Structures are given as C-alpha cells and as structure tokens.
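Dear Dr. H.,

I hope your travels went smoothly. While you were away I took the liberty of generating a structure for the chain from your last submission, since the lab meeting agenda had it listed for discussion. I wanted you to have the full record in hand beforehand rather than looking at slides cold. The sequence, exactly as received, is reproduced here:
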Amino acid sequence: MELELGFIEGLNNMIRFLQRRAYGLREEEDLRLKSLTRMPPEI
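The corresponding predicted structure, in token form, is as follows:
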C-alpha cells in the first residue's frame, strides 16, 4: 500500500501533538492507545 507524503506528515503531526498533550501520563500504553484511536479507519 502506498501512502501520500502529506498523509504521512499529517499523522506525524498528530502524534507529536498527542505526545505534547500526554506529558505526565503514567503509561506509555496510554499514548499508544490515544494515537491509535485518532487514526483514520483506513489504516
């Protein structure tokens, strides 16, 4: 499956945003779950 660069950059920006918001979360798993729930369903 080939993805557009703009789409990948958007995902990277979303993950960076979630990392900033997740500062102080106890578990790394919480960040992973937040990232996965924000992903578009076609991934």
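Two observations you may find useful: The CA atoms of residues 11 and 39 lie 8 Å apart. The radius of gyration is 12 Å.

With kind regards,
E. W.
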